[in-house]
């Protein structure tokens, strides 16, 4: 019996090393950086029992299943997008005074910049959710709702009630959630929606024969669209913590933007692709762009990014923004774990005289992120970048203010996960008035923050400083 167990164990170890060797070949061929390729190759060949499942869960950076399925329907989605662009051109909603970055951003996203939009900055749950719920009540044709996290708490049940009411009055309701972000959402919550006519789909990253372990990809987008006329996008999920009810991280500071105008049609494109991946259904939506009723003409870019993109669109967008700053660059992000190219770009911006400020929360819901964030302060401070720590609750909004005219609000953090592993959505507005609203919000946030310094880390205990360095080594998977 013991000899059989030894033979079985020897066979298992041999197969594990074979699997590790074969997987290491794929890691060398596909891993983005040389350092990452070396780390995976060494671990896969030395500790394959642990490294092989870890690689298949966390090592891949391209969402091949999504790419393939999107390609299957490209002939159907492209005509819809082209129809929208043609109509926008006929109605003169496309940008005429094109700047240098306009064609770059359009090539990155395959979506046009549009004018004729109105945007409203919504701050914190007390403004965000009443605005969204009022919009849902006015839906007549269809309602598209997508969130990363939905909880079965008071706010989650209020969302459920609004979806049910819309479905009962004949509105086509599509509800999309991320299965990993919303893993605590009970089946009864979803069954209640389905039984009342709401179409429900999970963004299941593990679907498909080639993707059973792809748990490292997330759909982090938050989008609500009403009848193709109004839309909401930004950082807020659906949970009571967004109303200041988290037991520790409170108040919860967040932001979303309400959009009216032709940019709403652009926002429908990523929802359409995500819905098709999740359900296999191609949606019949309103693709006719309309000017915002109050006559504003703000320029809006919609930037959907994710691991199915041809390029690392999210990282390239922020890298381009940093390099474009001439006198001011303010960035707020709850998860600030940049890679070396972003750190270098921030240093260069500060060295050429740009007022570069980074705003992060003092406390965070992710311990690894909080620790690793400390490791970047010294390099940034040396170049003149100021790092502020928000002390009046948990700062969760993802916002950027560039010079006096450009601002961005969305779902993307400054970390590897948002840059390369998550499906994200960012709304960029080129408008001085809206930029002043974002500036006012950030100035209030800065007034409730403290300036951080590298000296603080030097004064901490050795175990804390060691934990910071170890956390930084794990930055690629945070």
TrEMBL record:
Q: Where are the transmembrane segments?
A: 37-58
* Cited Pfam families: PLDc_2
Q: Give the first-level EC class, as a single word.
A: transferase
Keyword annotations for this protein, in alphabetical order, are:
Cell membrane, Membrane, Repeat, Transferase, Transmembrane, Transmembrane helix
- Give one GO molecular function term: cardiolipin synthase activity
Asked whether the UniProt record includes Repeat among its keywords, one would answer yes
Q: Which GO terms describe its biological process?
A: cardiolipin biosynthetic process
Where does it reside? Cell membrane
State where it is primarily located.
membrane
Instruction: Tell me which residues make up the PLD phosphodiesterase domain.
Output: 215-242, 391-418
Q: Which domain of life is it from?
A: Bacteria
Any one Gene Ontology cellular component term annotated for this protein:
plasma membrane
- EC number(s) stated in the UniProt entry for this protein: 2.7.8.-
Report what the protein is called: Cardiolipin synthase
Q: Which organism is it from?
A: Geoalkalibacter ferrihydriticus DSM 17813
């Amino acid at each position: 019996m013991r000899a059989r167990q030894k033979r079985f164990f020897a066979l298992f170890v041999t197969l594990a090393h074979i699997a590790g060797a074969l997987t290491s070949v794929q890691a060398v061929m596909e891993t983005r950086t040389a350092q990452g390729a070396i780390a995976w190759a060494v671990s896969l060949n030395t500790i394959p029992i642990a490294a092989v499942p870890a690689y298949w869960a966390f090592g891949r950076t391209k969402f091949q299943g999504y790419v393939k399925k999107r390609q299957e329907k490209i002939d159907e989605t492209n005509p819809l997008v082209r129809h929208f662009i043609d109509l926008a051109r006929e109605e003169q909603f496309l940008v005429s005074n094109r700047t240098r970055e306009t064609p770059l951003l359009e090539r990155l996203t395959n979506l046009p910049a549009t004018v004729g939009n109105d945007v409203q900055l919504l701050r914190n749950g007390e403004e965000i959710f009443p605005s969204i719920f009022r919009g849902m009540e006015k839906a007549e044709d269809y309602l598209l709702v997508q969130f990363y996290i939905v909880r079965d708490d008071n706010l989650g049940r209020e969302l459920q009630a609004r979806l049910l009411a819309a479905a009962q009055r004949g509105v086509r309701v599509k509800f999309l959630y991320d299965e990993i972000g919303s893993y605590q959402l009970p089946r009864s919550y979803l069954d209640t929606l389905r039984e009342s006519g709401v179409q429900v789909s999970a963004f299941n990253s593990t679907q498909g024969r080639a993707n059973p372990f792809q748990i490292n990809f997330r759909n982090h987008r938050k989008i609500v669209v009403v009848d193709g006329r109004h839309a909401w996008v930004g950082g807020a999920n659906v949970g009571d913590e967004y109303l200041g009810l988290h037991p520790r991280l409170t108040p919860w500071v967040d932001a979303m933007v309400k959009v009216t105008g032709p940019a709403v049609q652009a926002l429908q494109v990523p929802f359409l692709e995500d819905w098709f991946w999740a359900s296999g259904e191609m949606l019949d939506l309103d693709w006719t762009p309309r000017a915002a009723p109050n006559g504003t003409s703000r320029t809006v870019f919609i930037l959907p990014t994710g691991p199915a993109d041809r390029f690392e669109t999210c990282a390239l967008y922020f890298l381009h923004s940093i390099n474009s700053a001439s006198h001011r660059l303010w960035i707020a992000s709850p998860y600030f774990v940049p890679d070396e190219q972003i750190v270098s770009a921030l240093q260069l911006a500060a060295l050429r005289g740009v007022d570069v400020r980074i705003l992060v929360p003092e406390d965070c819901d992710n311990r690894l992120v909080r620790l690793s964030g400390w490791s970047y302060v010294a390099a940034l401070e040396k170049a003149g970048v100021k790092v502020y720590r928000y002390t009046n609750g948990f700062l969760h909004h993802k916002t950027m203010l560039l010079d006096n005219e450009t601002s961005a609000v969305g779902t993307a953090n400054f970390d590897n996960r948002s840059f390369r592993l998550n499906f994200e959505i960012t709304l960029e507005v080129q408008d001085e008035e809206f930029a002043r609203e974002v500036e006012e919000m950030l100035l209030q946030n800065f007034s409730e923050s403290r300036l951080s310094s590298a000296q603080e880390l030097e004064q901490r205990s050795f175990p804390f400083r060691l934990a910071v360095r170890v956390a930084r080594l794990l930055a690629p998977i945070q």
